[in-house]
Design brief:
The protein has 246 residues and is an alpha/beta fold. The chain has ten helices and nine strands. Strands 5-4-3-2-1-9-8-7-6 form a nine-stranded parallel beta sheet.
């Protein structure tokens, strides 16, 4: 599984430390560190920034601006793929329309949102080589009991009878090992490194006290990457909770 670490990561030296020889996800909402990721990462993906806009203003993605940004970077050797513009709380029809309007073909990855009909997930997996899964609606927080129950309703539509995904699956905000290690994901992302390295209270005790933010970032990235995703989807008990590394 590919672990994509989101930014922005501060200080810049920590961003370089995390992304060197690793994988980066850069959001259109926070694009300033893309040149760094493009310079040092094995690969990078571009996110349309819809989640950031939805969380802060509830506004839509600047689709024209995003397309210009993608076109500027899509031929870079490190570019992998990008998220097709989506509406976090949109209907099946609204998000299907945004996919139909997408002009750049299969370098784009559509998003299935958990509040949408499970049949939409089945259709997307039949039509696209990669599908991203976004947490939304009643299931906006990955790892909760309700979230796992919903995944149990959706993932059978994405998998064959043996639990093998019919398209490559990407987990948006699912880089917590307690989450992705139980899902058949090809990749996942989060901003967990960026968030946790600045929480001084979590680092000031014991042997971790006083270490630099560059080293904190390295430790966090290493902890994420010690785990792999599941090979197949298997229904399981829903008693799991989202942990420290979210």
């Amino acid at each position: 599984m590919i672990h994509y670490h989101g930014g922005p990561i501060t200080p810049v030296s920590a961003a370089r430390r995390v992304w060197t020889a690793r994988h980066a996800m850069i959001s259109f909402a926070h694009p300033d560190q893309l040149p760094i990721a493009a310079e040092v990462a094995q690969s990078f993906v571009l996110d349309n920034g819809a989640f950031s806009e939805w969380r802060s203003t509830g506004g839509p993605v600047d689709v024209d601006g995003y397309l210009s940004w993608v076109r500027e970077w899509m031929y870079h050797p490190g570019f992998d793929w990008c998220i097709i513009p989506d509406k976090i709380d949109g209907t099946d029809a609204e998000n299907d329309a945004m996919i139909e309007a997408w002009p750049l073909g299969k370098i784009g990855v559509p998003v299935y949102h958990l509040h949408e009909s499970p049949e939409r997930m089945k259709r997307l997996c039949a039509e696209w080589p990669r599908v991203a899964i976004g947490s939304s609606g009643w299931w906006k927080t990955p790892g909760t009991e309700a979230w796992w129950k919903r995944m149990g309703e959706v993932l059978p539509r994405a998998c064959d009878g043996a639990g093998r995904p019919m398209a490559k699956l990407h987990g948006l905000r699912m880089l917590n090992p307690t989450v992705f290690s139980h899902l058949p994901l090809s990749s996942a992302d989060s901003c967990g490194v960026a968030r946790n390295l600045g929480m001084d209270g979590r680092w000031d005790a014991g042997y971790l006290g006083g270490i630099s933010k560059d080293m904190r970032a390295e430790i966090l990235a290493h902890r994420y990457e010690q785990h792999a995703s599941a090979a197949t989807w298997e229904p399981r008990g829903q008693n799991m909770s989202f942990g420290l590394l979210g």
